[in-house]
TrEMBL record, chains A, B:
<feature type="domain" description="CBS">
    <location>
        <begin position="145"/>
        <end position="206"/>
    </location>
</feature>
<keyword id="KW-0129">CBS domain</keyword>
<dbReference type="InterPro" id="IPR038076">
    <property type="entry name" value="MgtE_N_sf"/>
</dbReference>
<keyword id="KW-0460">Magnesium</keyword>
<feature type="transmembrane region" description="Helical">
    <location>
        <begin position="291"/>
        <end position="311"/>
    </location>
</feature>
<dbReference type="GO" id="GO:0046872">
    <property type="term" value="F:metal ion binding"/>
</dbReference>
<dbReference type="InterPro" id="IPR046342">
    <property type="entry name" value="CBS_dom_sf"/>
</dbReference>
<dbReference type="Pfam" id="PF03448">
    <property type="entry name" value="MgtE_N"/>
</dbReference>
<dbReference type="Pfam" id="PF01769">
    <property type="entry name" value="MgtE"/>
</dbReference>
<dbReference type="InterPro" id="IPR006668">
    <property type="entry name" value="Mg_transptr_MgtE_intracell_dom"/>
</dbReference>
<feature type="transmembrane region" description="Helical">
    <location>
        <begin position="323"/>
        <end position="344"/>
    </location>
</feature>
<dbReference type="Pfam" id="PF00571">
    <property type="entry name" value="CBS"/>
</dbReference>
<dbReference type="InterPro" id="IPR006667">
    <property type="entry name" value="SLC41_membr_dom"/>
</dbReference>
<dbReference type="InterPro" id="IPR006669">
    <property type="entry name" value="MgtE_transporter"/>
</dbReference>
<dbReference type="InterPro" id="IPR000644">
    <property type="entry name" value="CBS_dom"/>
</dbReference>
<keyword id="KW-0479">Metal-binding</keyword>
<keyword id="KW-0812">Transmembrane</keyword>
Length: 461, 461
């Protein structure tokens, strides 16, 4: 994405409001005018915020030459839909002026057949650049990098470099430094634009270059790239191949997109949703997607319910158990989710390793034991008091003891599984953010029912 | 934070591993040497990943002159602990070389008394700058901005500007452009370093300046600043006061911190955790913090259980109801959480407004009706078949009908509340990410138990 595209309008939310009113009242000419005055990022945002029917009208009102700009800012699902419906030649023309990593991004998600046709209708040089970009997996440094960079040799003087740059007339967007390479194109170091400006003209590049910059390997996963940028406060970084040859550069704006997407992924996948799905997708599309998650949950809750089935006789003897039955599983699930979330986040920021995992697990167990004792006392007493003084039940004492004991057991189970699950799942290559919660609550439900009704059976049968 | 501090070591994770081994085997001299060779960000990360006892040893091994650097990278909770324990003069000395926004960040969280003492031991000029930075709320543009910037007047030539910059010898870190102001210091526009380099020396600043840059008001909330940076792919932006006077600039590295903190907040607060808490906090500290969340949950689950209590007679008549009882609330909770998450995220990225909320709610209802019909059919049939053919229960037909009917009702309730809750809570100034899930599942539990046991009462009593 271009870094220096600044905003043409200060009050964009007012504009969006007026745009919406014009759309509602069917003044399409006006909508078209307003749409094409807005920055492309705002148009994309407006499309994303509009239900499908109106969205299709809006899309047709956008000037052809801006379609590529808008496409690059759209969420994956919507973008793929529109891109796949464009004529290959039209798509090639629309994306011609984008940066090569953004072109590759748009094409990368489309069916192979369309990609081939689009590539075929590009100019030869463009096609080679895009094909090259497409050859790197999207979620690696190679997929993030741009190939337009300025390189110089170490022995030229600053004066020569400045003259050369002035002759070029324009630098690639978001250029904050130029790169120094040897005769075999191997990366040596970089010189920031501010160094160029503040150095003496007769100094050589070699005298002022920054060597302490460690380039990013082209196959590094994008989340690791993001962590390096974050930790080092980088604005751009060079990307190198296996033999140290300079291949391109990654700029912070694309890294910010990775960071936001990863965060979105954690949040959405906890509810079994996909961060790339369209919020305003049609009912049937959404219903189909959500059905799977509900189905998985149905299976897990039926498994948990089957544990209750084992103790049907006990419940028949003391119906009060059915009333108290949700409390223990629920508390175990909450305590376990806290540990699970803490560990998943600790792993994702790199705080948790083999060195400290045992310590952390012992700590989480300790927390659960303390809270287990505290809340089992509270709940045990409340249950006793209620059933003794209000319900005048003969079972009050045992009901209190049962629920208190089961609570301690389940809170400990929650902490243990909450800590172990993400580690186990990561080793098995399963995303703990996606399924950790479901597995955990299935476990705490089962342990909760079993501990509560099992203890009750000991006391009452 | 400094933007151009690049990483001094490629294999930092190997280094951390060796550091850990040295620490475990008590070779403190070696640990000290290794610690002081690592970049400050890595030292901070290592401290964050270490349990409290070893962490305190490590902190004492860090060279005094690096303490400020390390402090600025530490998580809030740990940083506050160490900063508050330093002598005021020592803290003033340690933070002297930091950027003013980072100094203000460190001081801002400390008790007023300490801040006063630290300020008193600073040099006058430094003190004024920090006091000025502290006067802006931390979570606004003013709290994010730096005041070290290069300004020029519109009528000077590029040649003069370049000569002036060369004389300065060094530009503030992360300078990607210089700012143009009038005689009253009001912001006019900016000139990027690449424009400076590629323009003709005899052109004036006025001829090449970029006017399309809309500066950020000093009181804009930091999450809005982050959205502007993200949407416009900015690297830096000027900050202005009420009368258009240039006050400072915000750089992308500080914005990335805001983005990451916001994402962390959403994720952690869903489990009732605080993103600033130390993962390796002592057991008692953590237990106290978590106790509140467990207590809130205990109250909500007891309220839900009281709904079951209303139907004790029905359960006494048909014990099978106790077994099936968790299924309907669970499914409603899952469906509701999906809608809730979708709406919370849609609101936070700005996709949802008054214009499209009705549409979205109708869509979510539609999704729940479809999935309600599908899964109530599945669960109704399963329950009928199981109780009829396996348990030979006379109640099989009605149990199937009851659970199917209750499921449809509860899925609709889940979608309705999942959509309305975040809107309502935001209007009441409550963070829906923090408490939305708890309120929602309390509702779906209650509706679930009421619908299931209520329908059962109609059929069986």
């Amino acid at each position: 994405m271009p870094i220096l595209e600044h905003f043409e309008n200060e009050h964009s939310s007012d504009q969006l409001q007026r745009l919406n009113e014009a759309l509602q009242s069917g003044m399409f000419m006006q909508v078209r005018m307003m749409l094409n005055e807005l920055p492309a990022a705002d148009v994309a945002h407006f499309l994303e915020s509009t239900p499908p029917k109106e969205r299709n009208i809006l899309w047709r009102l956008i000037n052809t030459e801006r379609e590529g700009q808008v496409l690059q800012f759209l969420d994956d699902e919507i973008r793929n839909e529109y891109a796949a419906n464009m004529e290959p030649a039209e798509l090639a023309a629309a994306t011609r002026h984008l940066e090569v990593d953004d072109q590759a991004d748009i094409l990368g998600d489309l069916p192979d057949k369309i990609v081939k046709e689009v590539l075929a209708s590009m100019r030869v040089q463009d096609r080679h650049r895009v094909e090259h970009a497409l050859s790197y997996p999207e979620d690696t440094a190679g997929g993030l990098m741009n190939t337009d960079l300025v390189t110089v040799r170490p022995l030229v003087t600053i004066e020569v470099v400045l003259r050369y740059l002035r002759m070029k007339g324009e630098l690639p967007v978001a250029t904050d430094c130029i790169y120094v390479v040897d005769s075999e194109d191997k990366f040596i170091g970089s010189v920031s634009l501010s160094t160029l400006i503040t150095s003496q003209p007769d100094e050589t590049v070699e005298q002022v270059l920054e060597k302490d910059i460690h380039p990013i390997p082209v196959d590094q996963p994008d989340d690791e790239v993001a962590r390096v940028f974050e930790r080092r406060d980088l604005i751009s970084a060079p990307v190198i191949g296996k033999d140290g040859e300079l291949l391109g550069r990654i700029t912070i704006d694309d890294v910010v997109d990775v960071i936001i997407e990863d965060a979105d992924h954690s949040l959405m996948s906890m509810a079994g949703l996909d961060e790339n799905d369209d919020t305003f997708a049609p009912v049937v599309t959404s219903a189909k997607r959500r059905a799977v998650w509900l189905g998985i949950n149905l299976i897990t809750v039926m498994v948990a319910a089957s544990v209750i089935g084992v103790f049907e006789e006990t419940i028949a003897a003391v119906t009060a158990l059915a009333i108290l039955q949700p409390i223990v599983p629920s508390m175990g699930g909450i305590a376990g989710t806290q540990t699970l979330t803490l560990v998943i986040r600790g792993m994702s920021v790199g705080h948790i390793s083999d060195n400290n995992f045992r310590w952390l697990m012992m700590k989480e167990l300790g927390v659960s034991v303390l809270n287990g004792l505290l809340w089992s006392l509270v709940v045990g007493m409340s249950v006793f008091l209620w059933f003794h003084f209000v319900q005048h039940s003969e079972h009050a004492t045992y009901l209190g003891i049962t629920i208190a004991g089961a609570m301690v057991i389940n809170l400990i189970a929650g902490a243990t599984f909450g800590a172990i699950l993400p580690v186990m799942m990561t080793k098995m290559d399963i995303d703990p953010a996606l399924s950790g919660g479901v597995v955990l609550t299935t476990v705490t439900d089962m342990v909760g029912f079993f501990a509560f009704l099992g203890l009750a059976t000991v006391f009452f049968l």
